[in-house]
Amino acid sequence: MATLVLSTVGTLLGGPVGGAIGSLVGQSIDQQIFGSPSRGPRLGDLTVQTSSYGTQIPRIYGKMRVAGSVIWSTDLVESTQTSGAKGQPDLVYSYSVSLAVALSSRAIADIGRIWADGKLLRGESGDFKVSTDFRFYQGGEGQDIDPLIASIEGIEETPAYRGLALAVFENLELAEYGNRIPFLTFEILADASAPTLENILRDASDGLIDCDAPAEIVGYAALGGSMRDAIEPIVDTFTVDLIDDGSNLRSPLAASPSIIGTDDLGASADGKAVARMELEQAPSRSLPSSLSVVYYDPDRDYQAGQARSETLDQGATEQKAELPAVVDASSARMLVEQIMARRWAQRDKLTVRLPPAFMSANPGILVELTGSQTSWQIQRMTTDGMTVVVELRPAWKASASLAADPGRFVPPSDIILDGLTLALVELPDLAGDGLNPTVYLAASSTTPTWKRAPVQISNDQFSLGASTARRKAAMGSAETVLGDGAAGPIDTLN
Q: What HEC string does 87-107 produce?
């Protein structure tokens, strides 16, 4: 276990995380966080967009990619456009929608890229690939109501969703996505700088955890049915030691190793002879021979990555853990190797019975046994009369980081239509008899990249929707006056 806990303090960690956390009344912190079986957050919980009532909204820390939950939407809005040859117009139907997506139950700093059906809807530079009006609300306690939602629902019926980070799309064009609402994911995540483990644990527990864990992490999503579910992946994966001081969970006090002499062993309150020490060893089949940790990889646009560690013991079991955090491949490999090493190193448990002089010792401190080459850590302490019963586990140190390759990844194209130039050109009807004048649209860009874009041509009498060609036009100005030519045929000379 990664925690060191003793006393029962009822509902110490029963408060809400992400707006949907229950309490476990009357149980110890150990049970509330790590004891009874419970399904914690899965990585898929953050990548599947929902619109169901009562869905949990995670608390996001650092930088993360999430799908969020659609909390408000209009019906699809249909519009028609006329296209086709003169005298034979065709009606082209297109659709748009307006919607609001809740992203985090904790205020976030900004939104980066946005994906729709896996393709970039908003690029690295903040440009949108399809037409929409976009507004972002950080989730502060003073944010205003959205004007679009208020205009449709009424000001009195429109909440400001304070404490909830929102993304609002107004008139999002859906032609690119088969005229349906696409599956959206957002790069957010919440803090201007990388958060530390101790800050995440303190915030996610509403201040009930105050530990010394200064390691930084790219991003994390606190989500689950209890505070235990929300923070267990951090405490377990990063091996954060915690003890219960009766009101908070905190790091063990730093102290020099205590020396347990041979004469201190085998103490008893009534003077009866007891074992000087009791050594237990967990069977190998209860330990993992293979351990995998699934995580979010920032080098692969936050897609799931997997780090794996194996032992030579074939009689043990295969285990898998999911970490709803953003870590690079090398860090993930280091974590899974550390978890495996710690579990096997601490398969031994040594129970000793000590005299009252050791009552001042605290869980978490290191001890040395006279004659033993192993360093031990106090895992748990209880009292039996004037005798201190101490459970010891072998002390363990983290290993050095290991290099790892995140694997091959082909990101979606991020084409920026910068410096778009449009021109209307009056030419003969090249597709017909060549006599009727026709207005053509030419479009080009100063950049080498190009993507077809929707264009709307309108005046006081009509509005016409069109699209640029799939290849950009070659546009320029004539340096001299063109020579004479016939009106009907194409002048290939001039």
A: CCCEEEEEEEEEEEEEEECCC
User: Which pLDDT score, from 0 to 100, does residue 103 have?
Assistant: 94
Taken in order 247, 252, 255, 257, the sign of the CA dihedral is positive
Whether residue 63 is predicted with pLDDT greater than 90 in this model: the reply is yes
Strand partners, 393: 377
Q: In what order do the strands lie in the sheet with 114-116?
A: 65-66, 184-187, 114-116, 119-122
| Domain co-membership, 268 together with 385 | yes
Tokens of 142: 């003073």
Cα separation, 125 vs 118, whole angstroms: 18
In terms of domains, do 390 and 422 share one? no
170 neighbors 132 (Cβ within 8 angstroms): yes
Domain count, the chain: 3
Q: Which residues, other chains included, contact 309 with Cβ-Cβ below 8 Å and sequence gap of 6+?
A: 290, 291, 292, 333, 336, 337, 339, 340
Q: What angle do CA 304, 309, 311 make, to 5 degrees?
A: 155
Q: The tokens of 424 are what?
A: 């209307």
The sign of the dihedral angle between the CA atoms of 24, 25, 30, 31 is negative
Predicted confidence at residue 54, as pLDDT, reads 67
pTM (2 d.p.) = 0.76
320 DSSP β-pair partners: 292
What CA–CA distance (Å, rounded) separates 71 from 46?
Answer: 16
Residue 22: strand, helix, or coil: coil
Nearest partner of 243 among 229, 254, 233, judged by Cα: 254
Host domain of residue 342 = 258-394
Q: Could you tell me the pLDDT band of residue 432, with boundaries at 50, 70 and 90? A: low
Residue type, 315: G
Q: Which two tokens stand for residue 272?
A: 């009866």
